[in-house]
Amino acid sequence: MLSIRSTTIGCDGRSGATVPHTAVDSPEQRLALRVRAMRQEAKDVLSLELDDPTGAELPDWEPGAHIDLRFANGVERQYSLCSDPGDRTAWRIAVLAESPSRGGSRYVHQTLRVGDPVTASAPINHFALAPADDYVFVAGGIGITPILPMLQEATRRGVPWRLAYLGSAGERMAFLSSTQLAGGELLLVRGDVDDRLDLAAWIGAPSAETGVYACGPERMLDALEELSAGWPRGVLHVERFQAKTFGESQGAESFEVVASRSDLVVTVDRGCSILEMLENAGIGVPSSCLEGVCGTCETAVVDGAPEHRDSILTPDERESNETMMICVSRSLGDRLVLDI
Known about the structure:
Elements: E1 5-7, E2 30-42, E3 45-51, E4 66-70, E5 76-80, E6 91-96, H1 104-110, E7 117-121, E8 134-140, H2 144-157, E9 161-167, E10 185-190, H3 199-203, E11 210-216, H4 218-227, E12 236-240, E13 254-259, E14 264-269, H5 274-280, E15 298-303, E16 306-307, H6 315-320, E17 323-325, E18 330-331, E19 335-338
Domain 2Fe-2S ferredoxin-type: 255-340
Keywords: 2Fe-2S, Flavoprotein, Iron, Iron-sulfur, Metal-binding, Oxidoreductase
Cofactor: FAD
């Protein structure tokens, strides 16, 4: 009979206040890279080329993937890979200068230089390009980054595609001269000179065999999710750079989490996260964003009903309850069993 240890440690290791979080990962999953090149792609947008200083090839990746990038100042952020997946000599990302900055974009634009070391995770993909008869892409601003290699892959597959690339002004739209934009139907919408795009009219009525992929600001993605209510299930795929806005949790005020592989039970109260409680009990869980955006803390669910509050899982994935993002999601009932 399995004996499960129990703990009631609070969010601060004592009473329930939130404590600072340190990203957790496995050393073998981390790559020591350097900045090979930097380029101004548009106003307030810098691209970085990252390579292995030893000359080793970088891991394979597929369109839609991102990496967790950690800088020398300790800041870690997630960035979409936007280069050619077939080029394993270097990876390219693009960084928008945000105001206010949480530390990542300011460091890149003001401090980082060619030759500087960075630490990267292996590629992670929660926005993979599934097979389809045709594709519709919508990119808003820096949201063009994960879309670029998708266009390239759709062209390689011989699948027709359309892209609406929306920006506040032409000077702020990165990669306009990229060859990755060739091969399909491109619509540029520059907010300073063009009329606002009617997304419903432009997209039309997609069939069940169409893949609609979108990345960009919250307002644009929310509008697309509303439109998709009348589309075939599973047609729309979105990637968010910012977490979705949720109301108050409708789940249990307090619940138990059984860590089935660690012989441990933790109690999670309101104001605490599953991730915090597991870490305070000594279980290191790979994690990064703490907002349900990056997917690093995705954990398999053995039993129980999660209250999904992430910005990654599709409706079908939520209904299956096979996994959850333990940095933000909670439990609808009084007990969850996780494979951890």
